Amino acid sequence: MLRRLFFAALPLLAACQPGPYTLPAGLVTNQRFAYSDGLHNENTDLLALDGRILLIFRGGETGQIGSDAAHINVFASDDEGQSWQPQAEISAATLGGDRDIRDPKLVVFDDRLFLYATSRLPGGHYRDLLGQAWFLRSESDDGGRTWSDPVKTFADVDDQGQETFWDMWRFTERTPTHTLYALGYDDGDDQVAMFASTDGVDWQKVSVVIDSYDDVPSEAELHFFGDDQQTAVALVRLDNQGILQDGQTAICTSQAPFASWECGRRIEQRLDGPSWLSGDVAGTHREFVVARKHLPCTFKRTALYELRGDLADPSSPIEVCEDAVLNSAGDTAYTGLALLGGDRYLVSWYSSTIPATGDVPWLEGTFTPADIWVADLDLSKAPTRRCDPPPVEEACPAAELPAGTGAAPGAGAYRFTLAPVIYPSQTIAFEATVIADGDTPGLALQPLDGETGEPTGSPWTATNVSVDGSGVLTARFDIVSLPVSAFPLLSDPLLTLHDLVLSGVATSTGFCGGFAGYAQVYGDARADRIDLQGSTFGAVPDAGDPTPVAACGG
Quick one: pLDDT at residue 490? Predict the structure, then answer.
């Protein structure tokens, strides 16, 4: 699912290097590529079927933004995922409108093999707005070797007669009633709802699980508990702490017939693209989730978590244990699980190509190649007594400043280059003017067109500039706007930047340092903000044709 497409990221932190990680002995073994072709492959799922394992994932694209080039790849393995043979490709070509296809899921229900997926209109869609998500169904009658053309299998109409659009995430059978349930989220990412079908073809909306613009609910896992599976539990992703930051996961419960939900419990890990395994492991009932892990400065991983506590009891506290971090970086997760036997599973995920050194910020990963990974997972080796909680959330550290000259930057014109913290190579250019005013300089930044280099939009004028005794320059700005032409990748005419603080020092070649504050993409909700802490800048005299510098020492 395309969640956000914005800005840029920092020089990479040693603390965020992508592995290798120390894993509990025997828990995760034989991490390996299942597929790599130089394109952006993502959104995996697995299914054990008739002695084989089916692997599906979205391919055909150079990045996460959708187009009619997207298709679902279907592979099969008869040796527990050691090797894979291509079976089929499924696209949205027959649907018209240049639609893409994504988020595939494999389901066996009533002795029929279904592949469910989502199709959206081409392009990027903030909070999935205007994507017009269609819930698709394809079927195979030969074990996944061939598939029918996908068709739209559900349409929801509101009280005003307008169609609303839903991306279905997870499908779970409630065995006593022979009913297949699904949880889905709407275009706009402000509702998660439950849907039901008795044949896998015709679907009805049952209830709204959570409705909250500020929480940004989306991907949701579903399991049933109790002797008659009368209690439904949903784990709902919440992007409620800012764009590209960590967030929370809501634990929601409902009793049959699932007309209303209680969502009071939250855990402080945002479980993106999850697969939830609920069942007995070595004779004890346990709850495991494989999902995306969030690090400072928008770096990501795929990780295995255990949730301890009674998920079906709304009053029970839940403890989160982080059991393993898998080989991954950048844009990653959207996992699948298939039973191999006993407590052994095959797990799948996708990851941006892992660099030999450094790391990949999430946004960069959405525009660059990504590979499909699998590994063997033996849950009997997971810790039983010890619980290692996820690390405490930390902010992206500010840029370190060199010693500098000890004086304020000299008056004059500079070529100023900003590397926003979520994609450092996608820099933003300004013409900076330093004005001498006694011991305290003035500072103005004029955005430049990203293609022509000409001034665009209004200048940013610092309202409070100071230089301390060691020569550290601090400049604060009121609310400013960033023209679309200054950062075409973002392409957001409503973008405003708030609480901007520039901290830097003069050097022998100009001045440099760090930038903090936040970008407000829309409205005023925290969920619609991009934290800019950790951004860097460099400025060199604007004489001749200077080489841009985006950081101290850059």
Answer: 79
Model confidence pLDDT, tens digit, residues 461-470 = 998 899 988 8
Check whether 7 has a pLDDT greater than 80.
no
What are the backbone dihedrals phi and psi of residue 137, each rounded to the nearest 5 degrees, phi first? -135, 135
Query: Which CATH fold would you assign to the domain 412-541?
Result: Lipocalin (2.40.128)
More confident residue, 480 or 11: 480
Q: Chain centroid to CA 115: how far?
A: 23
CB 275 within 8 A of CB 336: yes
Average pLDDT over residues 103-120: 97
The domain ranges of the chain are 27-381, 412-541
Looking at residue 22, its pLDDT comes to 67
Cβ atoms of 277 and 288 within 8 Å: the answer is yes
Residues 338 and 53 sit within 8 Å (Cβ to Cβ): yes
Q: CA 167 to CA 153: how far, in whole Å?
A: 12
Please state, in angstroms and as integers, the Cα–Cα distance from residue 259 to each residue in 183, 228, 312, following that order.
14, 17, 16
pTM score, whole prediction? 0.93
Q: What is the pLDDT of residue 438?
A: 66
Instruction: Provide the β-strand partners of residue 500.
Output: 477
CA end-to-end distance (rounded Å), the chain: 34
- CA nearest to 431, candidates 410, 417, 451: 417
Supply the CATH classification number for the domain 27-381: 2.120.10.10
Residue 386 has pLDDT above 70, yes or no: yes
CA distance 313 to 333: 28
Least confident of 21-25, 350-354, 359-363, 494-498: 21-25
Cα distances (angstroms) measured from residue 169 to each of 19, 135, 151, 462: 29, 10, 17, 46
Residue in 138, 126, 124, 121 with CA at minimum distance from that of residue 72:
138
Q: Which two tokens stand for residue 52?
A: 């084989």
The answer to whether residue 19 scores a pLDDT higher than 70 is: no
Structural element, H or E, at residue 365 = helix 362-366
Helices and strands counted in the chain (H then E): 1, 36
Asked whether the CA dihedral 360, 366, 372, 377 is positive or negative, the reply is positive
Structure tokens at 193: 């709802």
Can you tell me whether residue 377 is helix, strand or coil? Answer: strand
Structure confidence by residue, pLDDT tens digits, 45-101: 999 999 999 999 999 999 999 899 999 999 999 999 999 999 999 999 999 999 999
d(CA 409, CA 541): 10
Q: In what order do the strands lie in the sheet with 231-238?
A: 217-225, 231-238, 248-255, 262-267
Write the CA distances from 444 to 411, 433, 437, 505, 510, integer angstroms. 11, 5, 13, 16, 15
